[in-house]
Design a protein that fits this description.
Layout lengths: L12 H14 L8 E2 L2 H8 L3 H14 L2 E3 L5 E3 L6 H19 L3 H14 L1
Antiparallel strand pairs: 1-3, 2-3
Helix pairs in contact: 1-3, 2-3
Length: 119
């Protein structure tokens, strides 16, 4: 995997790693079934704490991007990149909620933009 951590960046290493792995999966440079490095191996390669890599792997597993197969290791999930589908589902649920609350489209869009700017 072609990943680099910028230790001088204000973005935490965990976030840098998570985004780079997601980008590799989205761009299909890492395809379904590809074995990814062990937690300790990647931590050593990137000069970061193993807990940082473990946290990243846990989050990516919760998103369905990777799967862990016990002693066999971690792999890119067969579903590949489910993040767009999850984002679309969240947007649909949000739209339904604001409709029930009687919020205008303009206000709802403004809430989203403010949330994205703050994230």
């Amino acid at each position: 995997m072609d990943i680099e951590i910028d230790h001088a960046s204000s973005t935490p290493p965990f976030e840098q790693l998570r985004m780079q792995i997601l980008d590799l999966v989205k761009s299909e440079k890492l395809v379904a079934g590809t074995k990814i490095p062990t937690v300790r191996g990647l931590a050593s390669q990137l000069h970061i704490a193993p807990n940082t890599v473990a946290r990243t792997y846990r989050e990516l597993e919760q998103l369905g991007v990777i799967e862990t197969r016990g002693r066999l290791g971690s792999f890119v999930a067969a579903s590949g990149d489910p993040t767009r589908a999850k984002a679309q589902q969240a947007a649909t649920e949000y739209a339904q909620a604001v409709r029930r609350l009687g919020i205008s489209d303009e206000d709802a869009a403004a809430f989203v933009m403010n949330a994205l700017e703050g994230a």
